[in-house]
Amino acid sequence: MGLICPKYSTIRSQIIRNINKQFSPTIKSFDDIPIESEYYKTKRNENFMIFKNTDLIIFQSPFQAYIFSNYHKNIFTDGTFYAAPKFSYQLFITRTYVGEFNMFYTTSISILKNKKQSTYETLFKEIKKNANKFRSNTLITTINFHCDFEQGISNAAKIGFPNINIKYCVWHYKRSLEKQKNILCYHEVKNNNDNLSKKKKYNNFLQFLEYFNKNYLLKYNVNNWNYYENIEHLSESYNSY
Fold first, then answer.
1. Where's the MULE transposase domain (predicted)?
2. For the sheet containing 49-52, what is the strand order?
3. What are the pLDDT digits (tens) for 62-96?
4. For labeling, which of 1, 126, 154, 204 is most exposed (least CB within 10 Å)?
């Protein structure tokens, strides 16, 4: 399925139009999201809205819960702002790889009002509780948990899952560093070559190193960085555009 999906750049306008359309014009804030709705039913008439509070709403069908509970050696997560409703902060998904079919399956979709660690803790707690209905025992296998460089997410995952190995996504890390490098260094490097300019460039690069040290080296355990396990797989193919 991931191989035949269109690139985000080709459907961006359509997504934005759909975001601007509301099934119910009465939903203008997170609190207005109903507890029950016809849109919470699958084609089998199964309810897939499993949890809602003032900060979070979680969608997980019985099939998704089954996949999550039985194929949890690697859990992949990602958040996006593009497809999130206007009144929310983030659309957050979990995905699981099923080796028998060599495919990734989305195992939950959540809408978050904020990015507090407590919100992510509730999210993982409720997903795990719902998934445990579809297995005979609790999650005890060592889990590789793949996520962005977000301490709120990784800290919540450590609380929610036993025997967990955090694997931070190097794609987002690389993009963040590149963006900061361009802000601090790019124009000086491109437009100037005299000695005075070089001294300024050195200073700019020191600022970049300070940013790297503060935001990554001191905050995240290097053993959890996913650098040697390249993430160019189906689960994050949408990050290639």
1. 76-173
2. 49-52, 56-59, 103-112, 90-98, 74-80, 143-147, 164-168
3. 999 999 988 888 899 988 887 788 888 899 999 99
4. 1
